[in-house]
Design brief:
The protein is mainly beta. The chain is built from five helices and 25 strands. The strands form seven sheets. Strands 11, 13, 16, 17 and 20 form a five-stranded mixed sheet that branches. It has a four-stranded mixed sheet with strand order 3-9-8-5, with no helix packed on it. A four-stranded antiparallel sheet has the order 10-12-15-14, with no helix packed on it. Strand 8 and strand 9 form a beta hairpin.
């Protein structure tokens, strides 16, 4: 079975050659009378449509972005065409270190490196070997800004430890990443990659910065921790008073003394400690910091 384009090519050739009719060589004009119109020839030979013509722009993607480790299919053969019966389809990648493609199925897998690759789909008609190429520009990339950071305790007691956690994306885990932590206000950081143990050595605000690198990009993520303590003198004379206050944390404060301390001193709702007898009292300040209550303690010695 011939196709339109074959007949068209034959008719076009007739414009530059002479033709033989009834054993006589004539000019093109004389021979034209014996040639059927092109439309009749096309109707006679066009029993089926050229399979390549069935492939439209909707059958393939010109551009696609994939994260490392992810897959994509960019070419879709029309349902009316069957591989092995009508056409053959093969695939190739210009850079397999960026994007690998299965030569038979066309499934693209993004590799660890970011960058660009061009995937070429070649469709060949089995009836005459005519081929067409369809190209897709594949971009392998991901946004490391989507990395998460959190802290288990935003408010802690001075000297205690909070845990900072990094949550990388699946693409980052596939491609690889690094992190380095720093902290302000003299806090000590122990780095275990996805987590960091932050110990507050002083009261006040601690800013923890995670410097995250992946795929040639670097970002900084921050969390804030507040460390609190009871500020004020650690000793007082009998019948004297000292002011105590909470440092480093904000919120409603409730003051109290331990059972033994209540026999030795008293403390006001504003944190004024008044000594009555010699001894040592344990002062507690409960701070409503956010959704949690932090209990701070301090020992005060009462002298004669």
């Amino acid at each position: 079975m011939k196709y339109k384009k074959v007949i068209s090519r034959l008719l076009a050739s007739a414009l530059v050659v002479t033709t033989v009719f009834s054993g006589t060589v004539t000019t093109l004009e004389a021979a034209a009378a014996g040639i059927k119109p092109q439309a009749e020839l096309e109707e006679a030979f066009d029993g089926e449509k050229d399979p390549i013509e069935k492939i439209t722009a909707a059958c393939y993607d010109k551009n696609v972005t994939i994260e490392p480790g992810k897959t994509a299919t960019v070419f879709r053969l029309p349902a009316s065409l069957k591989p092995g019966r009508d056409v053959t389809v093969t695939y190739a990648s210009s850079n397999e270190s960026i994007a690998k493609v299965d030569k038979n199925s066309g499934l693209i897998t993004a590799q660890k490196k970011v960058g660009y690759a061009r995937v070429t789909t070649t469709v060949t008609a089995l009836y005459d070997g005519f081929s067409m190429e369809y190209q897709t520009l594949v971009k392998v990339n991901y946004d490391i800004a989507k990395t998460g950071i959190s802290v288990d305790q935003a408010n802690i007691i001075k000297g205690k430890t909070a845990t900072v956690k990094i949550t990388p994306t699946s693409a980052m885990n596939y491609a690889g990443w690094t992190v380095a932590y720093t902290a302000t206000n003299g806090a000590v950081v122990k780095n275990n990659k996805t987590t960091a143990q932050v110990t507050a050595k002083k009261s006040g605000k601690v800013i923890v910065t995670a410097k995250i690198s992946s795929a040639g990009k670097t970002i900084k993520k921050k969390v804030v921790i507040y460390a609190g303590e009871i500020a004020g003198k650690s000793s007082v004379k009998v019948k004297k008073s000292i002011p105590l206050s909470v440092k480093g944390l904000t919120g409603k404060v409730t003051w109290s003394l331990d059972k033994k301390g209540r026999k030795l001193a008293s403390i006001s709702k504003d944190g004024i400690l008044t000594a009555k007898k010699k001894g040592t009292v344990k002062v507690t300040a409960k701070v409503k910091a956010g959704k949690k209550t932090i209990s701070l303690t301090k020992s005060v010695k009462i002298k004669n």
